[in-house]
Amino acid sequence: MRPSLLPLLVAFAAVVAAATLPAAEASYTPIANTSSLVIEQVANFSVIVYNLSNGKSLAFVSVVRGETERAVGGGTNYRLVILAEKTPRGSKGQFQCIVWGVPGTRSNTWKLLSFKAI
Ligand SMILES: *[C@@H]1O[C@H](CO)[C@@H](O)[C@H](O)[C@H]1NC(C)=O
Ligand SMILES: *[C@@H]1O[C@H](CO)[C@@H](O)[C@H](O)[C@H]1NC(C)=O
Ligand SMILES: *[C@@H]1O[C@H](CO)[C@@H](O)[C@H](O)[C@H]1NC(C)=O
Questions:
Q1: What is the pLDDT of residue 90?
Q2: 27-117 placed in CATH 3.30.497.10
């Protein structure tokens, strides 16, 4: 009787998937103090850029939580959950943004990588 190779192949495929998928996720670490000035500025920046480039009327309210990771090639990725308010009506909602930048540099070098309602 020939032993089947199939279970081995399935196990190998699972290991490959596990090794390639969540590598980027795993390197995010929680931000201890989301009220710090830098984090509020990053969050405010994301709302302003999103607002301007999409013709919305959103204003930054507060940072709910956030994580950072060292970006490949330098700088920092900020993944933040933000509370923002529609102006002038005032309904609030949560959004997740991802912002790249180098702390201490001018805002015109920073990039908004994604912004979505959650
Ligand atoms: C967080 O940062 C803010 C602004 O710098 C400060 O007022 C507050 O005391 C800090 N909170 C903690 C728990 O460190
Ligand atoms: C957000 O940025 C704008 C423009 O720089 C500024 O007027 C506003 O006070 C900032 N808001 C907060 C909460 O930091
Ligand atoms: C958002 O953008 C609109 C134009 O689309 C502008 O009228 C409004 O002042 C902006 N709001 C903020 C908070 O930047």
A1: 84
A2: no
